[in-house]
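Reading group handout, session on sequence-to-structure problems. Before we discuss, look at one worked example. The prompt was deliberately terse, the way you'd type it at a terminal:

> structure DUF4350 domain-containing protein

The input record follows.
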Amino acid sequence: MVNTSPGVQSADPSRRRRPPVWIVAILLAVLVLFGLILLAAPGAQKGSSYSRALTGYRGWYDYMEQQQQPVKRWRKSYDQLSGTGQTLIQVGGQSAFGIDVSASSREEGIQTWLANGNTLIKLQQQGSVTEAPFTSRLKAGTDQVKIETTRRYTNQGTSSGSSRADASDDVAVELQDRFGSVVWSQPVGKGMLISCAYPWLASNALADQADNYRFLATLSQRQGGTIWIDEWIHGYRDPSPEAKAAASKPQDFVEYLMRTPVAIMAAQLGFVLLLLIWGHNHRFGNLVKLKPERQDTSEQYIQALASTMNAARQTKFATQALGQQFRRTLATQLGLISPYSHNLPDAERLSDHWAEATGRSAPELLKLLEPNVRSDRELLAWVANVESLLRELP
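And the output record:
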């Protein structure tokens, strides 16, 4: 049987205050928005030389630096491209099937720069889907280049049994199999456009394929000049002169926080927290009433009396008082007296009955009934023996 305290009432779940529906809807909308942002953000990093993801090109960029090649990142608009003998590598995007110079070079400024004697390498998902196996190893000189795509560039005027040198004399095959070309090149003015149907030719996912890294390095080194990795298409921008001037100015602490993502995140979390507080009309949970502390006056009296006797060094008095209580408890448990009797049996009678009930010797109990305690340590030892004896009674 379980006793329930009259002062404690069970909470009815149906009476608990629930947040309004509109607050729940707002929170769900915020979560969905954050999820869309997180899912969409990594897309711009595909093919970036800053990304260490499987679709990034950080591994190949580090490889070129280790080879002491003049590789750099392009983070400016294309109308600022200048000079000759350079190479620009673009990873990602979508171009038309086959070779379309206008589609490949539609960014402003690239086609003029390309025709002046530079090279543009476009690693994109392009070409037609063929019956080629998804994973292939194609020979390029002494290298075995691994690709994972069924797309190939095929010239409709070439039969399947002919050479892969396409009908156009301007097109040169760089990497191919019997299903078509994977990498091909075409002159544009004094420059060269190199296209690849497999955008992840030297991505981080193929970091264990040294031949892939070496093949792309060979393509990009033909001009002998600076090799640019296009980061402009991935959203990276060199700061403008105005931004550099503003960054050089000293900032106060508030302005610094406002320019960091931490400030934006803190503002969003604060807004959500305010909605929760306002919707529930309390701070961080249901109100909990404090229960009054129960005071045991008997225990407080005993502790106060013990402190007084200890301060007065009344060890003998404490021993006598505890000894009388020990006799009363022992006699009651042995059935010699009632709990409320004032007449206690003498030590000999009490020890004889105890020896008969327990089978132990009477002198053992007499030592406890007539203790010779002279110090606090002896008193504590005597109390421990008394408690042990009372626990062992049948």
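Points for discussion. First: Residues 242-284 form one domain. Second: The longest strand covers residues 180-188.
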